[in-house]
Protein 1
Amino acid sequence: MNNLWAIEITKLGDNPETVILKNNISDLGIKGFKDLEIVYIYYLSGNISNQDTEKIGRQYICDPVAEKFKIRKLEDSRIKRTSKSIEIVYKLGVMDPTAESIKESLADLKYKDCIIKTAKRYIFSGTISINNVKKIAQDLFYNPLIQEPIPEKFYSSFVKYPVDTRKVKVQYINLLGKTKQELQEISVSRLLALNTDEMLALQKYYKKLDRNPTDIELETFAQTWSEHCKHKTFAADIIFANGKNKQVINGLLKSYIKKVTKELNRKWCLSVFEDNSGVIEFDNKHGISFKVETHNHPSALEPYGGAATGIGGVIRDCLGTGLGAKPILNTDVFCFAPPDMPKEKVPSGVLAPKRIIKGVVGGVRDYGNRMGIPTASGAVYFDEGFVANPLVYCGTVGIIPRNKIKKKIVPGDIIVLVGGRTGRDGIHGVTFASLALDGESKQISSGAVQIGNPIEEKKVTDAMLVARDLDLFNATTDCGGGGLSSAIGELGKCGAIVNLDKVPLKYAGLSYTEIWISEAQERMILFVPKAKLRKFLDVCNMHNVESSQIGIVTNTDRLQLRFHNKEVGNIDLKFLHEGLPKRTLAVYRKPQIAKKAAGEQWIANNDYNKIILGLLNSYNIASKEWVIRQYDFEVQGKTSIKPFAGKTNNGPSDACVIQPVPDSKKAVVISCGLAPQYDKDAYWMAASAIDEAVRNLVAVGGDPDKTAILDNFCWGNPEKPEILAGLVQACQACYDIAKVYGTPFISGKDSLYNEYKAINGEKISIPSTLLISAISVIPDIEKTVTMDFKRADELIYLIGKTCAGLDAPKVYPHQGINIFRAMHQVIKSGLVSACHDLSEGGLSVALAEMCFAGGIGAEVFLRKIKAVSEQRIADKDNVLLFSESNTRFLVSVSRQNKAKFESIMKNLPYAEIGKTTASDMMKISGINGHSIINLKLKDMEKAWRISLGSAMR
Amino acid sequence: MVKTAVLFTAGTNCDEETIYAFELAGAKAVRIHLNKLKKNKHILKDYHILVIPGGFTYGDYISAGKILANELQYILADSINEFIRQGKLILGICNGFQILAKAGILPGFSNDKVKKTYFSKQTVTLDTNDSNRFECRWIYLKPNPKSPCVFTKGMNNIISIPVAHAEGKFVVNKKETLSKLIKQEQVVFTYVNDKGKKADYPYNPNGSVADIAGICDSTGRIFGLMPHPERASTIYQYPNWGASLHASEKTQEPDGIKMFINAVNYAKENL
């Protein structure tokens, strides 16, 4: 007999969760609020008695030192509500990882077949009104896309539905007789995100076959031909007119990004643009893989789940590289609106910036930490333009044996699905990502929002790496966007038969099409030779990973989809992969005036002490400690140059260095660059991003001549000419700069349509943002350097030319690469004791950070910079202090190394500008020799450290 | 040869670096999946040291380490009891410490070789950090030279080591538990600040009572701590190793590795 029980846990001492929430509620300024208590509830249904429940509560769930519990039998189906409380549960079908874990563990302890759900009850005291309780709950406790206040029908959701055995009926979608207009309507109503030309191409193809497509076939085309999977904009022919120049570009990817990689032809690039990550050489046994993804749209709607599944997805890309790379590092780069952006500026229907920030950081934290992958490299950028579309870039670096980099597709191999079960999660995630968000997207796309289960993915990782090393499979890929349809469609290029009824489900009732396109998380596809199947399944069992044989690889060039022995789809793979009509886009661009940079506001003011403290305190420069320390950046014990450098770990490192093989001194360095502040001048914005990424990498000891880069474009709607024009120019910069820097692109991804139509009709497009990630191998980990000054009385040098202007700074790549090479030389030779790149805030901020990180003072003379500055600004203190010109470094050099250092720098723009001191002050004299800056290290450090943390409290 | 078993299950994630640290210390270390131990309860008899490494076993859902603690207590108690009775060593790092506490193996106030079971009623726990956040940072620990802990033998100076956890606040069920821990010198490590004095946040990163970072049982052979010695076992794991390199100073000897060496030496001499 099935009973329904609630085990209710409350904390014995202070509950830090309520302490934080109480602060947040006070911030909302709601009247009558006095106190808050949280009850953590576990609902159990199954054949369990009172004694059983008591035992489960006492022994298995409650921590008697920190908690107390009580059990409650729920006799009737009415929910008891008190006026001052609200209970939040997950909506039906949403992943509840806690419940999953408990279910498994109870099964182990002889309580099989229980249904478990978790809930949280928030009990208020004071004179607060129920409406205010509801408002607080919406603002702070739950997201209506995935959770809800406990509904009346909650109890009935514990009933298990019998497996659906009704007869399969194949659905056909009538395309053949439809007009253009009607075809477009079909695309819109079915959320296919295909344009008229594409629908017409399908109609033509099926006319030839003399039949209509089945629903699953049509969906397969929509998934495979989506912007997300096919990158239609990057593949399109573009007629580009810039002022008077007109040219035809045969695909941005082919003409610029891939072209530079091909022309550079670096021998240490082992796999580029052909797999789930790019792979470069590490040593003669290993390769290093790197992939960066975006998960913007889901993170806008459900920040925690969106960001978590973003990192979960890119980790699977790592596992799906070759025969599986082992994840060794995660990177995260976020673009948010500032946490304190005034409420009235936040469009309706958009989550508050602070909530998005907390959710996104929490999602990356909980997924990455649980997976045991250090998150040790990244950036956070703030601009109000990201208010409706936060950008969430997640990357994973992996290590892979060189003999496991290639996949083999062998007809006859069994298609095995491993990992999580399939539900309605993320249906239409891919086509959703290709549409712009609008005020209503919350309703139509709730299926595209998901919660991840990192422990499931950890088990899959463990099992896969064991199976890989036992050589038990020939190919693998991840189930990401498009689910099985993309995974099997891509990998089984020579043909496959798939039995969709063999896919294990979270709950009954999914149609065959839903099974095929579900984006349920934590699943991988593997092609296993029959002879090794038993052994493979044993490995999965040992790791408690569910595995199902769902099909077989064939050589028919057809994708045959079956459901309960009936054919529901039969697609020609050649047409699926090559039938997509090429788009042609045309854009005319007027010469534009670049936007002024943020630094301009400082120009009129000449209280430089105040300006510097203000800059250090501004969100874009201030310490990201509040974010970074929530990540386990030390797990795996390989993180050698960490996010923080300096005497008390209080300075911002330029790049991260890890030591992937503990007995080897070889290291991997990872950095990034982005410059959305210059988005109105996309060419130099892109050039600056590349320069910053390479500069950061060189600053810790990376070799510019062995550096690979990755591109991640986040852009608005490319159908708008000015947006597309920027995209073209950014790609041109990618080619021009990477060609001279010699840095091939090894992987990349784009996320377009990042715009939002608010309910009031206002269209908000994000600042066009190109993230460049850079990676390189350092032969000897000791030939690296951090950014903190190490000793007093060393010489401080500025390398690189300071230029005018607060417009988008230019990059002079031919001189740039020479500077990078020389910098690499001096660091490798141990001539430099500290090195920091100049970026936001220019010289003043870089110098300040080097000082307080090292606990060492400095004395610098701006007149000494004159020789390496553009003439028209050479006597302007403010420009010399704050210019953000590219390709510049600050270094400290001991007096004994002076001559050697200068001989390597010969012929390059460099200047000795001062020295480090034993004082606790940063002192700078202006062009005229007067002291213009006199700041205490501890004041600067304080300004730099506190702002983000206090904003997020 | 001293053999170390590193227990592994869903969500364990510090197994490799822990194995590496034991190997650096001269032991042979093997990862053993919990399912193997469930199948063969005698598998541990070939090993001298059992480690429950860091991680998020089963996601740390319910609360950190709770589910694995249940499994040890209710499924694997015989194997663990036998292992302890033989005088062998157990080390719980981070998640492992949470598990040893929640299974009632620590504090183990009066362990001797004739005890029927070494699982007692739970009296201490590791609760949510006061900050309500995961905290990853390097902190300072003061060893207790009077402690019987075999892992920290000869360690008298303040050490530097990282913590990384969301639930590391050491809490006791009642005052007497704390006074007994102190009286019996079972407190092995306390958090201190950079001057070696009483630690406030963030030096005490979680709000632990009496700044306790690690405790051992009455014999000193079972040891649990929140900080990660395996992440402080080579110089390149340290922050700032580069600074001493540039000063041509002798680089600091890693502190974490000493605990593994002590364990291996003890096993060599006694087991």
Note: Chain A has a mean pLDDT of 91.
Protein 2
Amino acid sequence: MNGPTTDARSGRADPVAAGGRSAAVLSSHGQPQSLADVLERVLDKGIVIVGDIQIRLLDIELLTIKLRLLIASVDKAKEMGINWWEADEFATVNGDKDGKPAELTQRVEALEEQLGDRQSKSRSRSKKEQA
Amino acid sequence: MSPDPVEGRVIHVYGTLDPQAPVPAWPAGIADTPVSTVTEEGTVAITGELPRDEFDPAEWERHADDAAWLGAVAMGHHRVLQAAVAVGDVVPFRLPSLYGDLEALRRVLRGHAREITEAMDRIRGRIEWAVKLYRVSEPVAAEPASTGADYLRARSRQARVKTEAEAQQGQRVRTAYDQLRQASDAAVLNTPQDSLLTERREPMLLNAAFLVSRGEQDRFGEQIGEVAQDVEAEGLLLEASGPWPAYNFTATVDAGSERA
């Protein structure tokens, strides 16, 4: 249901295949839309019509979400039945199928440091808006 | 016409349907709740009732950093809109859009009727395709070096070649975007996603969305294929996904829909 239509897929996939790219490219073409893409859209796009129950989600940092995702993916994802990203890509990048939680933790920590600046800026901005 | 939500529930709006379009068979919505529609003066809102204690403002705030919770809610929201766009046009509402009772919802729909109609008119008969470009390789040729001096010269030459190659790739990204923009009805350039989000080592150089007539999808797909082939020689990988509900083309103008 989430995937591309058959027509559209053949329209894209064939020329790409002819270009000689590996099967990985084709499978990523044929895959459902990624969670990152969905979050980017449902939280940041679409017509803004605020209901009578008002919730401030305007300042949610996608990267923060992703950080949590990396952590959540190890333990929580399966029990919550959220496994749409759990294909080869994720396993390959993070090596979690080989059981390397230490490496994952390190990576997350390093990224958290990098993001520290951006996040604190975004937080203070959101506070100002609320004030 | 739905009655007021049962005690302890709030109404969530996913988006609005084209009043002329058929109502699809709905999948389960957010938190596995059923989906229905509410019509108010020609606006057909796609609605569902969510348990208030799980979706009141305090809960949203509590879960704002909780990717598992937010991810599941986002996917529920998207799943419903995706079902709608499979059979007709849909204007997605930004998440969340919650109402305490039916009268509040009707009041808001009346108040925004013009905005909603205008958004629907912009995207009627069209859907969204996403195209991304990644840098998969930097075409720097390795050169054999026999002496130390040769080696250093080769290194500096390679650095220069690399800079040139990157500039060339950047130019190629711009051209690819322009080609696809010309083949579409509208285009939006989004910030490339961090590799943290994409789960790929290769940096994303283009994150674009295109509005395409439903009847032109095959042609646009061919265009994507051609561009994919062209950019491959420059060390770029193209990824496309769709069709999406026209998320990138329904926001009000000041929210960026006309950026490109």
Note: Chain B touches chain A through 79 residues (CB under 8 Å).
